[in-house]
Design brief:
The chain is α+β, with helices and mostly antiparallel strands. Helix content is 19%, strand content 39%. It has one domain: Nucleoside Triphosphate Pyrophosphohydrolase. It is built from three helices and eight strands; from the N terminus they run ββββαβββαβα.
């Protein structure tokens, strides 16, 4: 994949906090699309904005396998047509409330196109943490999502 397109430090409630070390992590961001809709996660127990499906790349795991694993774990969707890298790699620095740590995350975004909304059940822990919501492409600009997620989503739509 390409070079870093942008770096962003979160502001406000999720800005990095003094007294906490930064934990660096390579992550995927899955922009999941079915027809003219995009999937976001809405968190239940924290005050996060809506989010793309994201997750760390495990040691020895390639990015596409990480995308498949995270999409399945967090959403249950498995009828994937294609996984395409998006040229919008970014470094995002923020405070992870539920882990009580500052994070410096490098995000490698991918457009994940589904053939159908066929899915399997996800783990109860995932269900307690978040729910999947579908939004229409023309609603993207009005979404309450992290700025770097908005930029990755817009890049996916415009590529």
């Amino acid at each position: 994949m390409g070079n870093i397109v942008f770096t962003y430090d979160e502001q406000g409630e999720y800005a990095p906090r003094e007294g906490f070390d930064f934990v660096k992590r390579d992550n995927i961001a899955a922009i999941i699309k079915y027809q003219e809709e995009y999937l976001l996660l809405k968190y239940n127990n924290v005050n996060y904005s809506k989010s793309l499906v994201t997750g760390g790349i495990e040691k020895g795991e390639n990015m596409v396998d990480a995308v498949k694993r995270e999409v399945l774990e967090e959403t249950g969707y498995l009828d994937i047509d294609s996984i395409t890298p998006i040229d919008c790699i970014n470094i995002f620095r923020f405070f992870v409330e539920h882990k009580h740590q500052n994070r410096e995350a490098t995000y490698y975004p991918f457009l994940v196109t589904l053939n159908s909304k066929e899915k399997v059940d996800i783990a109860d822990l995932e269900k307690e943490e978040h729910e999947c919501i579908w939004i229409k492409e023309n609603e993207v600009d009005s979404l309450d999502i992290f700025d770097n997620h908005r930029r990755m989503l817009n890049n996916a739509i415009n590529e």
